[in-house]
Amino acid sequence: MAKHKIGVLISGGGSNLQALIDASAKADYPASVAVVISNREDAYGLNRAREHDIPAHIINHKDYNTREAFDDAMQDMLERHNVEIVCLAGFMRLLSPKFVARWQGRLLNIHPSLLPSFKGAHAVRDALAAGTKESGCTVHLVTDELDSGPILLQAKLPVLPGDTEETLHFRIHEAEHRIYPEALRILCEKQPKK
Ligand code: GRF
Q1: Domain residue limits at 114
Q2: Overall pTM surpassing 0.85 (yes/no)
Q3: Phi-psi category of residue 120: left, alpha or beta, with phi > 0 → left and psi -120 to 50 → alpha
């Protein structure tokens, strides 16, 4: 089966990257990870890619004067690897409208809340502070507005008495690792394979 080539952008641990790599290893999964790009050289996810012989590149945003120039460097790398779909997996940089437009409908993000609730970088902390009884995670298409694009999949889970940011995020992560590969499968099945 011809698989869609995926580029994964990370900034950190890359447990969602790992879930996508593990899914890709199955013969009947419609995608494979062609390249991983991190804006941070210390991102542990780079090791995960290398362990699986997946090209892993550091493109440090600090080396570029503008967001557009940084995004263009990532674009060049994605094109070099013939990437068809981009997955953000804990990638902690805002993307330029130009980059988002180039990947419209082919750019996915995973977010640790039930969007549209608790957008932004501290979603788990904010959910706990608000006293919400239910949390979860969302895979959505990326648009110019932060954490706001069309939703592909969500998983809900209860907030338990005594939950801390760490315990709640741990359970959210487990749910993320289930739904991110599944959402990517759904997107691949909608996209004609080039
Ligand atoms: C995840 O919780 C994801 O929802 C958020 O950043 C975290 C990344 O975790 N966008 P990891 O690097 O995939 O382990």
Answers
A1: 4-190
A2: yes
A3: left
CA distances from 27 to 23, 24, 97 (A): 9, 8, 35
Q: Which residue, by CA, sits nearest to atom 6 of ligand 1?
A: 90
R_g over Cα of the chain: 16
Residues sharing a CB contact under 8 Å with residue 24, sequence separation 6 or more, in sequence order = 3, 6, 31, 32, 33
Report the CATH number at residue 92. Answer: 3.40.50.170
pLDDT in tens, 154-172: 999 999 999 999 999 999 9
pLDDT in tens, 24-41: 999 999 999 999 999 999
Report the number of distinct structural domains present in the chain. 1
Q: How would you classify the pairing of strands 4-10 and 31-38?
A: parallel
Look at ligand 1, atom 5, and give the residue with the nearest C-alpha. 90
Q: SS3 of 28, please? A: coil
Residues with Cβ within 6 A of ligand 1? 12-16, 89-90, 110-112, 137, 173, 176
Residue nearest to atom 7 of ligand 1 (CA): 90
Distance 66 CA to ligand 1 centre (A): 25
What span, in angstroms and rounded, lies between the C-alpha atoms of 78 and 80?
Answer: 5
CA atoms within 13 A on the CB side of 37: 25
